[in-house]
Specification:
By secondary structure, this protein is α/β, with parallel strands linked by helices. The protein has helices spanning about 15-25, 50-55, 60-65, 90-95, 105-115, 160-165, 235-240, 250-255, 285-290, 300-315, 320-350, 355-365, 370-380, and strands at about 5-10, 30, 45, 75-80, 85-90, 100-105, 120, 125-130, 135-140, 145-150, 150-155, 175-185, 195-200, 205-210, 215-225, 265-270, 275-280, 280-285. It has a single domain (about 5-170, about 270-380), classed as FAD/NAD(P)-binding domain. The protein has 13 helices and 18 strands.
């Protein structure tokens, strides 16, 4: 199929990746987003090799390497700093054929925006979609109508168009914990500069990973009741209380960050859902399968979606509907497995069943590094980027 016009709702990781892949397949693409200015959600993201390979296949390998942190090992430590497990990531890199890259979200967004040829139309809130046998039309609150051969809803965890595709409302489900995340200058007194260090205890986590520009992306996880108020002026004192008695680098990290630059989402996921496509309208990324970040696969799955969708549209001449059905069948199985696995992991890490969390701490101390990297490789290689 050639000369398709594609309308994409949402300029996040998924929407931009899909836009670039579809443009490179020779299609005309328009991207719309409801925000007045694009600001990435959260400070950083770890892209495992399946996501990085999508970027490589779009010709963005060098740019990706330039914004990615050098992560050669992964360390689990107890809350007081004793080493539980030291995992060399080089065997994993060899197995999956690509280094993972932790990146600052702002850097990733800038890279994707630059690679997309054309304007992203901001301040356009999509409120509905209509379609017939030959086209789909996105309707916006400012009266604008965008007509295409298909509409891709990449409008995130609180997607407006999900209900249209599913014929029912699916609310995001609370993952049981709050995540503070941000960026700080890298320094050896916080963590080794080529390591991903994760402190675990009391059903909480504190984590540091390297990104480009000699910075660490950090996060803190704390299981809290949904709706616990977020007050930036209290982030430091709150975290100092939650992490009282934790290792010295954790205390230094709390002193080091700037609360004004910290994001604090309540973690939610969506799905698994029973459809991703209705006629000429397709859900993509978090709109279809928002994932607890406990596998590091949310952004990667959105990237895979965009790449797979472009492949199916590019390689069939039957119909748009047929290509979208193939996309749905392929991606539903893959993303359902990831959403379920990430939720199980989120519950295990954050003490939904305290006995299970204790067992996990025990397992971290006894597990061979190979078992850890094999489990990561299995998730990575189950997708399209072998």
């Amino acid at each position: 199929m050639h000369d398709l016009n594609v309308v994409i709702i949402g300029a996040g990781i998924g929407g931009l990746t899909a836009g670039i892949a579809l443009q490179q397949a020779g299609f005309t693409v328009e991207i719309y987003d409801r925000v007045r200015e694009l600001r990435p959600a959260g400070a950083g993201i770890s892209l495992w090799s399946n996501g990085v390979k999508v970027m490589n296949s779009l010709g963005l390998g060098e740019q990706m390497a330039a914004i990615g942190g050098q992560m050669d090992q992964m360390q689990y430590r107890t809350k007081t700093g004793e080493l539980l497990n030291d995992i060399d990531l080089l065997p994993l890199i060899e197995t999956v054929g690509q280094r993972p890259y932790p990146v600052a979200r702002r850097d990733l967004q800038a890279m994707l925006l630059k690679a997309f040829q054309g304007e992203v139309h901001l301040d356009h809130r999509c409120i509905a979609v209509e379609q017939d046998e030959t086209q789909a039309i996105a309707l916006f609150d400012n009266g604008h109508r965008a007509t295409g051969d298909l509409v891709i809803a990449a409008d995130g965890v609180r997607s407006i168009l999900r209900e249209y595709v599913l014929g029912k409302t699916v609310e995001p489900k609370y993952g049981g914990y709050v995540n503070w995340n941000g960026l700080v200058p890298a320094s050896e007194d916080l963590a080794p500069k080529t390591s991903w260090v994760i402190y675990v205890g009391d059903h909480q986590r504190a984590s540091l990973m390297p990104v480009a520009g000699d910075r660490f992306y950090f996060f803190f996880d704390v299981p809290l009741p949904k709706g616990t108020p977020a007050e930036p002026e209290r982030y430091k004192s709150e975290l100092a209380t939650h992490f009282a008695g934790w290792a010295e680098p954790v205390q230094r990290l709390i002193e080091a960050f700037d609360p004004a630059t910290v994001a604090r989402p309540e973690i939610h996921d969506v799905g698994p859902i029973d459809a991703m496509v209705r006629g000429r309208v397709a859900l993509l990324g978090d709109a279809a399968h928002a994932t607890c970040p406990d596998l590091g696969q949310g952004g990667c799955q959105a990237m895979e979606d965009g790449w797979v969708l472009a492949q199916y549209l590019k390689t069939t001449n039957i119909s748009v509907d047929y290509a979208l059905q193939r996309y749905e069948r392929d991606r539903k199985e893959r993303t359902t497995a990831v959403v379920q696995k990430a939720r199980q992991r989120a519950e295990m890490i954050h003490g939904k069943d305290p006995a299970l969390t204790q067992k996990w701490y025990q397992q971290l101390a006894e597990e061979s590094p190979q078992d850890v990297t094999d489990a990561i490789a299995k998730v990575i290689l189950a997708g399209p980027m072998h």
